[in-house]
Amino acid sequence: MSTESRVAIVTGAAQGIGAATAERLAQDGHAVAVVDLKEDNCADTVARITKAGGNALAVGADVSDSDAVEQAVARVADVLGPPTILVNNAGVTRDNLLFKMTEVDWDTVMGVHLRGSFLMSKAAQAHMTAAKWGRIVNLSSTSALGNRGQANYSAAKAGLQGFTKTLAIELGKFGITVNAIAPGFIATEMTKATAERVGVAWEDYKKGAAAQIPVARVGAPEDIANAVSFFTGDAAGFVSGQVLYVAGGPKA
Ligand SMILES: NC(=O)c1ccc[n+]([C@@H]2O[C@H](COP(=O)([O-])OP(=O)(O)OC[C@H]3O[C@@H](n4cnc5c(N)ncnc54)[C@H](O)[C@@H]3O)[C@@H](O)[C@H]2O)c1
User: Fold this and answer.
1) pLDDT at residue number 252
2) What pLDDT was estimated at residue 175?
3) Are residues 156 and 113 in contact, defined by beta-carbon separation less than 8 angstroms?
4) Does residue 34 sit in the same domain as residue 146?
5) 189 CB under 6 A from ligand 1?
6) Is residue 153 annotated as a catalytic residue, yes or no?
């Protein structure tokens, strides 16, 4: 079963997992909307896709802002065609122990992960239901199982798992599958920032993480992009409402 060419949206695709995912979906033959907070920040990802012979569009939008989301999805539909693949990848951390966590830390993380995935999915599903085909992939995390200093982030990432399962039930009859990927430690700016925050040199931080991972290495953004490629392909049409831990070992 080969995969047809579609229009995909990847949020938070200026760097890290989102950038690798956008590039992978372009390699799979899809036109890709590279969405991030600022359009300019998407230029590098778009340039790499275009250089490799793919088709990509840079779109600036804050996924937690409903007007920005409406405009972004409408622009993608106008320029590339109706989007039928959505990867809700945009993310932030505002780590702190509960007694030090501010309301802004809480609301910011909920806003990007949960509200952002809700708004993007709501806007994109209109095109998917019309096409009677769609794929939504939400980025959860092993932190959904609990992680010290991440009450906000782990609640949001666990919330995304419930969101995923409910959308899978509601949208299945329209040919739309909805799945979640829960990465473990992936080497990106996000984990680099955590290393800086806890005052451990980046190489030592990665070594320490790898020592805890059964496959004895940390993950790369491409490890997640490969899983997204599977879930968004035609061959995965009977896989829905699942959470795939991509963490170099068993989780959950
Ligand atoms: N790196 C890891 O180890 C890891 C592990 C588990 C889950 N994740 C999840 O994977 C996703 C990608 O993580 P990453 O490590 O590549 O992070 P990253 O910080 O490198 O990239 C995140 C991107 O999201 C963008 N973004 C943030 N807020 C946004 C908003 N409101 N609207 C649009 N874009 C926004 C940022 O500008 C950035 O380009 C996140 O959802 C993260 O929570 C990462």
Assistant:
1) 52
2) 98
3) yes
4) yes
5) yes
6) yes
Shared domain check, 122 and 209: no
Within a domain: 250: no
Atom of ligand 1 nearest to the CA of 189: 20
Residue 113: burial class (beta carbons within 10 Å; 0-12, 13-18, 19+) = buried
- For the chain, how many structural domains are there in total? 2
Asked whether residue 251 is assigned to any structural domain, the reply reads no
Verify whether ligand 1 is closer than 6 Å to residue 28 (CB atom).
Answer: no
Q: How confident is the model at residue 2 (pLDDT cuts 50, 70, 90)?
A: low
Does the pLDDT value for residue 133 go beyond 70?
yes
Does the CB atom of residue 88 touch ligand 1 within 6 A? no
Q: Within this chain, do residues 150 and 191 fall inside the same structural domain, yes or no? A: no
pLDDT for residue 3? 73
Decide if pLDDT at 201 tops 80.
Answer: yes
Are residues 170 and 129 both part of a single domain? yes
Q: Which of 106, 118, 133, 153 is catalytic?
A: 153
Residue 92 in contact with ligand 1 by CB distance below 6 A: yes
Is the domain of 26 the same as that of 74? Answer: yes
Sign of the dihedral defined by the CA atoms of residues 21, 22, 24, 29, in that order: positive
| Domain interval for residue 15 | 7-183+221-245
- C-alpha dihedral (72, 23, 141, 216), degrees to nearest 10: -170
- Of the pLDDT bands very low, low, confident and very high (cuts 50, 70, 90), residue 104 is very high
Q: Which token pair is 187?
A: 């080497």
